[in-house]
Design brief:
By secondary structure, this protein is mainly alpha-helical. It is built from 5 helices and no strands. The chain has helices at about 25-45, 50-65, 80-100, 105-125, 130-190.
């Protein structure tokens, strides 16, 4: 498959590169880096899959260096056509969520969603570790649904705040109109008083 990144000679000559990985101050990128490290170590130490381990280790390194790493496009992986539609839907939903601004606590979940998606994709391509495929898939959808629910809540809250602000502005404008109208009435009455202080009839 065509990997999205290519390692420079000094980056992945040894898997030990991850031992000196730096911490990023951005909470999303830092979580992304940590999650990719965990996945890469799992592929290396448990699955003995050096090629994919090094690839995801590189994504961890790139994220730690401040690069905005994207999830994998399923069309670049060897996914059976019966599964590809499902992955494209998941990929598009994830990409859409990545375009929104989340609170810090949700950015952590967003990063976990991205890595669990990549995990699901990688496991599905190998297509033999059924339990691992199921776990990564479930982790992805749990994270995805959590984020979608929180996003809907944020949008609803924002609309409610905008509605309250609109009503407040309209109320202030109405109060100002009433004050101006009352002020004009007083001035008009004052101008229609005769020299003896009696209000003249308006003809």
């Amino acid at each position: 498959k065509p990997y999205a990144f290519k390692a420079r000679p000094w980056e992945l000559t040894s898997f030990d590169t991850l031992k000196s990985i730096q911490t990023n101050t951005d909470i999303f990128l830092n979580t992304l880096s940590i999650e990719y490290q965990l996945f890469a170590r799992y592929e290396m130490n448990k699955m003995n899959d050096q090629k994919d381990a090094q690839y995801f280790a590189l994504k961890a390194i790139k994220a730690s260096q401040g690069e905005l790493i994207k999830p994998e496009d399923p069309n670049n992986w060897d996914i059976h056509k019966t599964k590809l539609k499902k992955f494209n839907s998941a990929y598009n939903q994830l990409m859409k969520l990545l375009s929104y601004e989340f609170l810090d606590k949700d950015k952590i979940i967003l990063a976990k969603a991205q890595v669990s998606y990549d995990c699901w994709l990688e496991q599905q391509e190998e297509n033999w570790q059924i339990e691992h495929i199921r776990k990564c898939k479930n982790d992805f959808y749990n994270n995805l649904n959590y984020l979608k629910k929180n996003l809907e809540s944020q949008i609803t809250t924002k609309k409610q705040e905008e509605s309250i602000n609109h009503k407040t502005i309209k109320s202030l404008e109405t109060s100002k109109d009433i004050e101006e109208k009352n002020g004009n009435t007083l001035v008009k009455k004052s101008n229609n008083k005769g020299s003896n202080g009696i209000v003249n009839k308006i003809k």
